[in-house]
Amino acid sequence: MPQPKLASFPAIRGALRFYQICSVITGIGLLLLVAEMILKYTPLAVEVFAGGSGGFLWLAPVVPGPEGELLSTGDGLNLSLGILVVHGWFYVVYLFACFRIWSLMRWPLWRLLLLAAGGIVPFLSFVMEAIVARDIKTYLATREAAEAVPAPAAATESPR
What we know:
four-stranded antiparallel sheet, alpha+beta
């Protein structure tokens, strides 16, 4: 398996930081999305709204439409829809962060797929963030320590 080049270590550190931030934001967005789905698609059948006739923050019931789809009855800003859209778009940013760290570390494809799953499996992004950060920091420290060790004296002396 190919190893990352030492010259790419600063880029790896930056990509790791970006990945860590993206994984936390994506994980929180996914948990909010799961909560929104529970509110909407269980017998509760409500959506979260901000403003409008219900006040600052309120729950509006959803009703079945003529073709069985759920129709919102609230007015104001539909936060449920906002959570869905924001998580969807930020998942694209998260995938970019995953691809960047994967390509710099030269990992196998299965690792990229596991990283990408962090944005669709609740809590997985938090677990993967901890594992990836630990693995990369350990790897970088080990490689830098190995490179810092001077070559054996016999190999560096010139013949007389």
